[in-house]
Amino acid sequence: MEEGVSIYLVSDSNVDTAENIASIAAAHFDTFIEKIKKYPYVGDKNQIEEIIMEAANDANSIIIHTMVVPELKDYLLKKAQKFGIKIVDVMGPVINAIEDSTGISPHTNLAKNNREDYLKKIEVIEFAVKYDDGKDAMGILLADVVVIGVSRTSKTPLCMYLAHKYIKAANLPLVPEIEPPQELFEINPKKIFGLTIDPEVLVKIRKERLKSLGLDANAIYATEERVKKEIKYAEEVMKRVGCTVIDVTNKAVEETANVILNVLKGGEIS
Questions:
Q1: Measured between alpha carbons, how far is 86 from 167 in angstroms, rounded to an integer?
Q2: Which of 42, 87, 135, 268 has the fewest CB atoms within 10 Å, measured from its CB?
């Protein structure tokens, strides 16, 4: 049986460029890629050591990299050569050509900035997960944005979307039988965004949700009476809090997020 190739994509920023090159090149051969391992935002020699040791254990491995930081790039090359691992520098020839033509040295802080952005994004995504669905009231105090509303108003996907905009977002479900935590009334109401929705639309959404779970679509959770009761209660809480209220009826998550981002910048709801 023909032996496959294991490709290791390594970069001190993202691995998109290396991945595109690898895919295009592999398409020209009658072989198969046994596995592709991605190592973005490599920032120290210990990470390089781990990558090299893993690649060295593969019989037919290739490292394709877009490392720019000279010290790390040289270290990766030396380690790969030591273990006899094939290595391809995608960015090097292009950067060298531009440097020779212009006499200007490349910026080496780009990878550092990309890495910092990456770590920041991971931090806010983890925050959104940790403080999703009112799991911990402490999130209300720590968040940049707190989203409140009844079930199935897209609070969770909205918070995840905001996280990708580097905003720490927590969300809290509003249920008539449960009093909101006191923390909600202690923070600046400008940080709080209440989501409301047309009752008829919400009934349909909840029925579809129950069906997808194999449950009875006529359960109390999806009745018009229950939905109207929840929405009325939620709007009363929003009024008490004094927050911005957004009608998410027929709104995509991106649209709702853009409204929030605009308000945070001092704008108004359009």
A1: 41
A2: 268
